[in-house]
Amino acid sequence: MPIAPLNNQVVFKKLLSDEEILKAFIKDFLDIDLTPQTIEVEKKFVPPIGGVDIEIDIFVDDPTHRVVIEIQRERYDYDFDRFWHYHIASQLELVKSHKECKLERTVYTIVWFTRKVREKQYQRSLITTRQISETEQDESMILYPHQLFFLNPFYLNEKTPQGLEDWMTLVVESVNNPTHPKINLNRPIIQKAAKLIDDDELTPQERLSILDERDYNNMRRKEWEEGRMAEKQEIARNLLAKGLDHAFIAETTGLSIDELESLI
Predict the structure, then answer these.
(1) Which in 85, 117, 174, 187 has the greatest CB count within 10 A?
(2) Domain limit, last residue, from 163, 186, 202
(3) pLDDT digits 0-9 by tens, 77-106
């Protein structure tokens, strides 16, 4: 069956907000038997935590865990800072008053990047951030169990945790091979996932939301690219004013010689 692309937030949110699929994914990845009390899509904290009014794609609470899931198609320079804020804010929100400072839930923040990235050091299927404490005797201990994960299925490899393989393959195939996806249909939960995002079964409202998101993402990408170009041009002008060699400036900024000459 053809499946809708999971690099679209509308489709991804539909998939992972389904309780059975969410529980199976978390069990495969974190080996946690999640028992959701709430599953919220586009969650906001009221009042906002810190200086940013964040909106969380999928927000889940059970008696002992809090799971935050974000879907990010583009890779921006500020992503790691941004999602660290999401991770910390989701912990701070658990503190309801000065009398209840103990965090009764462990927070797991999972960020899915759904496209390849430019930076080689980030071309990994899984990046895990843990808060590890150290003593003066070079001892390590985990005082805070909360964890932040960055997943990128486009770098699936033999060292990727086995529990992620079916889910990462589902994402990649939905983007690269949506008409005839090669996914593990031997697993009933993957069968259900494929059926849930069956492209032929999307509602008119879902299709409209997908188109709206594509338009928005294209606009954001264009704005970002224009901003990067303006930054490169400003650096080039400063270097040109210092009389530096054009070839050196072109190599430093990534601009072509013709583009440099247009700035003179």
Answers:
(1) 174
(2) 202
(3) 778 999 999 999 999 998 876 566 777 899
